[in-house]
Amino acid sequence: MPTLPTRPFGRTGESLPALGLGGGFVGFAGFDRSVETVRHALGLGVRYFDTSVMYRSGASQAILGEALAAPAAPHYLATKIGYFREARHFRSVEAMHVQLRENLRLLRRDSVDLLQVHEADWDNWWSDRSDVRPGRLLDPEASLNFAHAPVIQFLREAKARGLCRHIGVTGNHARHLGRVLQEVDGLDAVLVAYNYTPLNVTAREHILPVATAKGLAVIVAGLFTFVHTLPEGWATEGSYLGPRSDAQLAALQKLQRESGLPMAELALRFVAADERLSTVLAGACQPAEVDQNVASFRRGPLPADLHAAVEAIARQF
């Protein structure tokens, strides 16, 4: 069976292929096609699968549950606890256990390998508020009781009960997520999206140093999101895109045309070259997209001059 290069998954003792499949299914091709895509990835040696209650309104978990119900190969499955419109649905340990039971039902299993907090960089997880506003980031300078927050108590309890083997946090804003990592001990992994791409490498500054010091596995995602266009309204707090983002994207697209490589391959090979990253999640909605991602990953790092050119663009952030 095909294999992919592996890397240590933090200090968990696991060694996993460094290319994983994200379960956001952006460009959704339907339930059956998505199941086929997951199974195709497994057949090509992908072993890390990531999903969330927040992806496709929970349908992502059902897709992974169907696709991996009788897998032909061992795999590692990560899911997330999410926030909802009302704080009572996620601001207590009991409410999160209710959510986890539903997650496991959709995933058709009694436990998962990694249980994470969905977007732990939002204030919702750390402050008691009746109004839930996903757009409100935590204040990196505020005095917050991270270690005793309900969600951290829940993660530790779920792990102690054997409902997951490892626990972690995820987020989309490296500086804010880095504060969580600094304050919370006992985590096994961190996933950061949109902050390690050809346009933004701030995860190197705010995530990698503390994750390395604490022995956490580092997963990155969202590396394809901005390389084709800059969605309006996504420059939240300057954490995704900087004031030079239009110029950065134009320079990247010019470089891509000159290189002759597909943009997804350029982005994937640039990011995956950093061996401090445990897993790079590459999204796919069709088996052919999985083929492209696996083939790109197998080609290894970009030529040195091309990598340096992408690096120069990323550092303009």
Task: Give an overview in words.
GO terms for molecular function: pyridoxal 4-dehydrogenase activity. Pfam families: Aldo_ket_red. This is Pyridoxal 4-dehydrogenase. The protein has 317 residues and is of the alpha/beta class. It has a single domain, classed as NADP-dependent oxidoreductase domain (TIM Barrel). Helices cover 37% and strands 15% of the residues. The protein is built from eleven helices and ten strands. The strands form two sheets. An eight-stranded parallel barrel has the order 3-4-5-6-7-8-9-10, surrounded by six helices. The protein has a two-stranded antiparallel ribbon with strand order 1-2. The longest helix is centred in the first third of the chain and has 15 residues. The model has no long low-confidence stretch (mean pLDDT 93).
Helix amount, in percent?
A: 25-40%
The number of E-state strands comes to 10
Shape: globular
How many structurally independent domains? 1
How far apart lie the N and C ends?
A: 41 Å
Give the integer mean of the pLDDT values. 93
Strand order of the largest sheet: 3-4-5-6-7-8-9-10
CATH superfamily: NADP-dependent oxidoreductase domain
Reading off the top of the CATH hierarchy, the class is best stated as Alpha Beta
Number of contiguous helices: 11
Order of H and E elements: EEEHEHEHEHEHEHHEHHEHH
